[in-house]
Amino acid sequence: MKYILRRAAPLFVPVLVWLAFFIAFEPNNYFGLKPAASSTQPVARVREYQANPGKNLILGDSRLAHIDAAQAEAVSGKEWQNLAFGGASLKETLDLADYILDSGNPVEEMVLGVSFYTLNQSYSTDRFEQLETTLENPVAYCLNLEYNVNALTVFLDTVRGTPDAVETGDWGPADYVGDNGETLPVHYKLYVYPQSLIPRCENWALTSQFDRIAALAARCREQGVQLAVVLPPMADNVLTEVCEPFGIDKAMEQEVLPQLHTWAKEYGFALLDYEWENRPDFDDDTQFYDGFHLDEVHGLPQWVDMLFGALA
Predict the structure, then answer these.
(1) In the predicted model, is pLDDT for residue 11 greater than 80?
(2) Which residue in 49, 74, 251, 293 is a FRET match for 67, CA 20 to 30 A apart?
């Protein structure tokens, strides 16, 4: 047996080298060996919660994922943990909320991000079951191709000295030129963004997950958790080029928002709507990075002040 092990030992060297490389550069801090994750992927956010459960939590998609928890704390006087992640559907956000409430960890306050986009039946990504499997099985995590590509990307960025991307721009003349050389009224990234939303929104229909918001509100009330449902702001051209042409504005104003207000009164949660009823007076061209995401330097901090000032 010893002879076989000695002969086989060299075969394990590449595996050990790969494993050491993966653990060193995987961005989700899955093994808890780094001060913090450099990723906002769902596995990073939930792994952080498992290691250090917070009591005041932010859930939602990428529009909330970039909120600076330190700024939120400075404004509200409460320590926040951000569990929002890019591309989160309403189902995934609600599944995560239930996961947290099922965990038995104490929760005092929960911010739940929703939007006309995540309320759309056509936007129904469902990764939570796979996420739970990954969280419970380190081998599955290590063998996942996506996470290995992420680790390689972090390694290459480290070697090149490439900084983490921040969604902000000091737009210059070249950013206001269209594909045909025409001068644009807003910077290019904002100008073209509505077109990326149309395929999912042209047949907009309210998701069957909508009623789960009421179920979550009832559960939060029973467990003594203060819930706030937040609709983040959108740029004007998303409203005029996507929502109005496809009747989404009418559906939201006539069906969705009245129901949310009814539930807010019934279950006692805060409804903070910056998407329709209380749209901030932002300058789209300078304060939005694209049609959904506020500029992380020139727009998002101002909205965080508004949001967590209201929550305080």
Answers:
(1) no
(2) 251
